[in-house]
Amino acid sequence: MLLNNFRSTVIKFKPKICQSILLTIVIVLLDGISSSAQSPKQNLNIVFIGNSITQGAQLSLPDVESPPAQACVHLRAQHNIGTVTYSNQGYSGFTTVDFLPATAKAFPKVEAAAHAFTDKKALLIFSIKLGTNDSAIEGPNGSPVSPNAYQHNLKTIADSLLKEFPGCIIIFNHPIWYSPNTYNGAKYLAEGLKRLQRYIPKIDRLVAAYASAYPKQVFVGDTKGFAYFKKNYLTALRPEEGHQGTFYLHPNKSGAGELGYFWGEAIIRVLNER
């Protein structure tokens, strides 16, 4: 008799227990959705460091068509990113030597750009793409820059930025392909292209070396650009006349948009990894 009453009680209250459990689940889910919706978006201040490719040389409207501008368009479309302010510190013909603090040529401009951002709480990012001019046989400042010297120069630049701007993020993008007959005011050719490719593992090793001293502050950025432009140079790079015929070095509007997308995706990946 007592056992039957117990079973009857359990059966009687089971629906209410289920309703209570369901209500609890709904409340937890709603709290999670609400918390997610209220999470503050990440504001970004980005300084793009580079050469004529970063600058947007050969483009009709570099202020809107350059890779940095296009990267920021992509970033602003992300649901978890708020304001994106950037400075394009790309200078035609510049090498890593030109950006060394000791030369006092481009580095003071980079410093000024970083200090000029008004939102001091935004995450400061330095997106760097250098190497094209370093790889030249002759012409640009310091060229040809050996792979070891290239790595040393990048480290000097990064060390100085990390010291002056604690908490900043540094992203090293791989350099992109150019045709082996490239020879304009500077002489690149196949020798330069071969040297450029030897820079890539130096970037990867440098970033790996920062893992312990500056965890989650120094990253490898885009790694797709080189192969993309090698494959699609006829449609993504601008044909230019040089000393050895038509060469391909600078992205056209379409190519700049693609490169900007690559750089933007690299920044998104870095934000997700932090």
Account of the protein in words:
By secondary structure, this protein is an alpha/beta fold. Helix content is 51%, strand content 17%. It contains 10 helices and 7 strands. The protein has helices spanning 2-38, 52-55, 62-65, 67-76, 107-116, 147-164, 189-213, 225-231, 233-236, 253-273; strands at residues 42-50, 81-90, 123-129, 169-172, 218-220, 237-242, 245-251. Helix 4 packs across helix 10 (253-273) and helix 6 (147-164) packs across helix 7. It is globular.
Write the layout of secondary structure elements.
Elements (H helix, E strand, L loop, with lengths): L1 H37 L3 E9 L1 H4 L6 H4 L1 H10 L4 E10 L16 H10 L6 E7 L17 H18 L4 E4 L16 H25 L4 E3 L4 H7 L1 H4 E6 L2 E7 L1 H21 L1
Parallel strand pairs: 1-2, 1-3, 3-4, 4-5
Antiparallel strand pairs: 6-7
**Content-based structural category:** alpha/beta
Low-confidence stretches: 24-28
In DSSP terms (H or I, runs of 4 or more residues), the helix count works out at 10
Q: Which percent range describes the beta-strand content?
A: 15-25%
Order of helices and strands: HEHHHEHEHEHEHHEEH
Name the overall outline. globular
Give the strand tally.
7
For the largest beta sheet, what order do the strands appear in spatially? 2-1-3-4-5
- Kindly report how far apart the N and C termini lie: 63 Å
Query: Averaging pLDDT over every residue, what do you get?
Result: 91
State Rg.
Answer: 26 Å
Oligomer: single chain
Helix share, percent: 40-55%
Could you give a short account of the major beta sheet? 5 strands, parallel
